[in-house]
Amino acid sequence: MSVLRIPTPLRPFTEGASEVEINAENVGMALEELTRRYPSLRKHLFTETGDLRSYVNLFINNEDIRHLQGVDTPVSAGDQLMIIPSIAGGLPGGC
Amino acid sequence: MTIELKLSNKVLSQIQANGENAYPEEGAGLMLGKEQDGRRVVQRILPLNNAREDTARHNRYLITAEDMMSAEMEAMRMGLDIVGIFHSHPDHPNRPSEFDRDWALPWFSYVITSVENGRAVGSRSWRLADDRKSFFEEIIVVLKEHPEVKS
User: Fold this and answer.
1) Alpha helices in A1-95 (DSSP H)
2) Are residues B68 and A85, on separate chains, in Cβ contact within 8 Å?
3) Which tens digits make up the pLDDT trace of B100-111?
4) How far is it, in rounded angstroms, from Cα B116 to Cα B88?
5) What is the complex's ipTM, to 2 decimals?
């Protein structure tokens, strides 16, 4: 069992839970399990086409999964997963 | 129910000064505070570096995940939560853009300050609707005194 930490703005969709215990083989499966348990969370983590939203960053034991194997990064019992949003915005136009 | 964001005159002035100081680029930062019994109160702001490249900072801001992680820990140390984001729109109205909506998180308050020719001319606060299709405005209530919130 590993622990997935939920950031404050997503807690209204996890019934207020700041941490959720998850049993999964890798990060992608952990997110699938999380959104199966809390379906209303899915649209805030994934786009309509199933990609992770731009602001979603995942850390496992304080390491960004982009520097590991992405969503295929294995998860072991006792690991701590964190969803950390990055924040962006701005004027119309540009990219 | 009317949704409100309460902050002191001092905090609002700090938010607007951040936008003026960043002009003609976008300034941004986090609002730390508490939500109790449906009342959201900003206690202090945490200005952060705009991590976008030089050529994009006039119309974009970015707060990295690493900065968010540090801010989260700082907020916890103060017994506060990150309750929202503030940013400026240089020479543009204080309404959220489509780009703002794409990147918006639910629950957070998004305070946008319009800065015209280097002077802040008004701030409005918005929240993302749960279906992510639009923002709705929340009323900014400016308090003369700094609000007391139990931690």
Assistant:
1) 27-37, 42-45
2) yes
3) 898 999 999 999
4) 10
5) 0.83
